[in-house]
Write a structure and sequence with these properties.
By secondary structure, the protein is α+β, with helices and mostly antiparallel strands. It is built from 14 helices and 16 strands. The chain has two domains: about 100 residues, OB fold (Dihydrolipoamide Acetyltransferase, E2P); about 300 residues, 2-Layer Sandwich (BirA Bifunctional Protein, domain 2), CATH 3.30.930. The structure holds adenosine-5'-triphosphate (ATP) and magnesium ion (3 copies). One magnesium ion (MG) binds next to β15.
C-alpha cells in the first residue's frame, strides 16, 4: 500500500479503499468511545481525521500522539459519522515517526500571533495560515512561468553577483573577498578592489534589468525571476532586504505595450491562483474576515479578500500621467487638511500614502501612473519630448499601484538613443565607460524596448490578504531577522 498525499485521499480515493497517510498531528481528541486524530501533511489546508476505538491503541502510543508529532496511519477510508468531514480513516495501525514533547513544542492547536510566528519562522509552515500562504506563493510562481512561456518569453538567468547598480540608489550589499578589517589600499588611501576576487567592486544584484535588456536585444522577449537584494534599512511592511523579482523585458515594445502586458500579466496570474488555490484562498479569506471584525467599523475593508481579487481581475486599471495624479493629490482632502505625512507637489517621488490615496480613495481601482519627472527616475528610462504641458522634463515610466500595497510594479520604456543615454549618464554621474557593455546594445542594432519589475512578495501579499511582507516569504531577510 503506497503512501498518498491527503489532498489526493480527500479528493479522489473511493470510500472502502485501504490507505496509508502520513503527516503531522494537528489535534487529538478523546471521547468515551473513540480517539480522533486530525492529521495534516501540507498538501492541502484540509486535515484528515483518523479514528481509533477506545482501547485500540496502546497507552504508550497514545501518549506519543500529540500536536506536532509525525505519524503514519494505515486503515480504511470510510464515510465519516461526524460533522465537518465527508470521509475519515478507520485506523488499523499507527507508526509514530517522531514525537513532539507537548511541554516544549511551540505550536499549539490555537491561533498564534503573527509576531510570535515570525520568531519561529522554522516551524511556522506547519500552521494553517503559513502552509496556505506557501501553497499560494508556489501557485503564483508557477503561473508566472506559465504565463511567460505561453506568451513566447524566454526565461533568462541574470547574475546575482554583479558590478552594476541598476537603480543607482546605493542600496547594495557588497560582495568581497578582501579582509574587511584590513583591506589593501591604493596610493590614494582608497580600498584597492583590483586585488578583490573579481578585480573590481561587486555587489549582490538590486535588479536583473540591465542584463535582462541584453537578453531582450537578442531573444526578443525574456523574463527574469530571481532573488534581489537591497540593503534598505527600512522597517516598513513592504520592504525586505532579500526579495524575488520578476522582470520581463521586450524588444519592440513601447510604453503602451508595456502597460498592456503588465495589466494582462497580473490579472492572469491572480486568476490562476483563484482557480487553483480555492481552498487556501477561502481559508485566508475567512482568516481576514475574523481579523477585520476586531477593527473599528470605519477601518474595516469594504470588500472581502476574494471579492477584492475578483474585482481586480474584472476591472480595467485606471491609467493616467504623474502630472494628472499630482493635480488630483494637491486638490485632495488630505493635502488640503495637511493630513499627508509627506507634502505633495510636482517633482516629488510619491510615497505609499499618496499612491494608496489614488487607488483606495480616489479611483477605487488599480492605477497605472506614467510619465514621471525625469529627475526622480533612473537614467535608463526613455525621455519624453520636452513640452510646456509639464513643469519639467518627464520619462516614459510606469508604476502599477494596488490597493493596500501601493507600488507593485515599476517599469518603463528604455532609452534606445545612444547619445541621449550617454548624456543622461553624465548628468547623473555614471561614467559611460564603466557600462560599455550596456551601451553596446544602443551602439549596435538599437531598438525600442521596454520592461518592468514586479516584486513577487508584493503580489503574494496582495493575493493572500496578509499585511506584512515578512509573512509571505518562507525565510524573511530584513534588518535583524536573519537567524538562519
Ligand atoms: P518602493 O518605492 O516601494 O521602495 P522601488 O520603486 O524602490 O519600490 P523598484 O526599483 O521600482 O522599487 O523595483 C521594482 C519592484 O520591486 C517594486 O515595484 C516592488 O514591487 C519591488 N520592490 C522594490 N523594493 C523592494 C523591497 N525592498 N522588498 C520587496 N519588494 C521590493
Ligand atoms: Mg525603494
Ligand atoms: Mg518606488
Ligand atoms: Mg519603482
Amino acid at each position: 500500500m503506497s503512501y498518498l498525499p491527503i489532498q489526493h485521499v480527500l479528493k479522489t480515493v473511493p470510500v472502502g479503499t485501504d490507505v496509508t497517510i502520513k503527516g503531522w498531528v494537528r489535534t487529538k481528541r478523546e471521547s468515551k468511545n473513540a480517539v480522533f486524530i486530525a492529521l495534516n501533511d501540507g498538501s492541502t489546508i484540509n486535515n484528515i481525521q483518523a479514528v481509533a476505538e477506545a482501547g485500540q491503541l496502546s497507552e504508550e502510543t497514545l501518549k506519543l500522539v500529540t500536536t506536532g508529532a509525525c505519524l503514519a496511519v494505515t486503515g480504511s477510508l470510510v464515510e465519516s459519522q461526524g460533522a465537518g468531514q465527508a470521509v475519515e480513516v478507520k485506523i488499523a495501525s499507527i507508526q509514530v515517526y517522531g514525537p513532539a514533547d507537548p511541554d516544549k513544542y511551540p505550536l499549539q492547536p490555537k491561533r498564534h500571533s503573527l509576531e510570535f510566528l515570525r520568531e519561529i519562522a522554522h516551524l511556522r509552515p506547519r500552521t494553517n495560515t503559513f502552509s496556505a500562504i506557501l501553497r499560494v506563493r508556489h501557485a503564483l510562481a508557477f503561473a508566472i512561468h506559465k504565463y511567460f512561456n505561453d506568451n513566447g518569453f524566454f526565461y533568462l538567468n541574470t547574475p546575482i553577483i554583479t558590478a552594476s547598480d541598476a537603480e543607482g540608489a546605493g542600496e547594495m550589499f557588497r560582495v568581497t573577498t578582501l579582509d574587511a578589517t584590513k583591506p589593501p589600499l591604493t596610493e590614494e588611501g582608497k580600498v584597492d578592489y583590483s586585488q578583490d576576487f573579481f578585480g573590481r567592486e561587486t555587489n549582490l544584484t538590486v535588479s536583473g534589468q540591465l542584463e535582462g535588456e541584453l537578453g531582450a536585444m537578442a531573444l526578443g522577449k525574456i523574463y527574469t525571476f530571481g532573488p534581489t537584494f537591497r540593503a534598505e534599512n527600512s522597517n516598513t511592511t513592504r520592504h525586505l532586504a532579500e526579495f524575488w523579482m520578476i522582470e520581463p523585458e521586450m524588444a519592440f515594445f513601447e510604453l503602451e505595450d508595456n502597460m498592456n502586458l503588465a495589466e494582462d500579466f497580473v490579472k492572469t496570474v491572480i486568476r490562476y491562483a483563484l482557480q487553483h488555490c480555492a481552498d487556501d484562498l477561502a481559508f485566508l479569506d475567512n482568516r481576514l474576515k475574523e481579523e477585520e471584525k476586531t477593527k473599528k467599523k470605519e477601518e474595516q475593508s469594504e470588500l472581502s479578500l476574494l471579492e477584492k481579487l475578483q474585482f481586480v481581475i474584472s476591472n480595467e486599471f485606471v491609467r493616467l500621467t504623474y502630472t494628472d495624479a499630482i493635480e488630483i493629490l494637491v486638490n485632495s482632502k488630505p493635502a488640503k487638511k495637511g493630513q499627508f505625512q509627506y507634502e505633495v507637489s510636482w517633482g516629488v517621488d510619491l510615497q505609499s500614502e499618496h499612491e494608496r490615496y489614488l487607488v483606495e480613495k480616489h479611483f477605487k481601482k488599480p492605477v497605472i501612473l506614467t510619465n514621471y519627472p525625469r529627475a526622480i527616475k533612473s537614467f535608463y528610462m526613455k525621455q519624453d519630448e520636452e513640452s510646456s504641458a509639464t513643469p519639467g522634463p518627464t520619462v516614459r515610466a510606469m508604476d502599477v499601484l494596488f490597493p493596500g500595497i501601493g507600488e507593485i510594479i515599476g517599469g518603463s520604456q528604455r532609452e534606445d538613443d545612444f547619445d541621449k543615454l550617454v548624456a543622461r549618464m553624465h548628468e547623473v554621474g555614471i561614467e559611460p565607460e564603466t557600462m560599455w557593455w550596456y551601451l553596446d546594445t544602443r551602439r549596435f542594432g538599437s531598438a525600442p524596448h521596454a520592461g518592468f519589475g514586479l516584486g513577487f512578495e508584493r503580489l503574494v501579499l496582495f493575493v493572500t490578504g496578509m499585511s506584512n511582507i515578512r509573512d509571505v516569504i518562507p525565510f524573511p531577510r530584513a534588518p535583524k531577522t536573519a537567524e538562519f
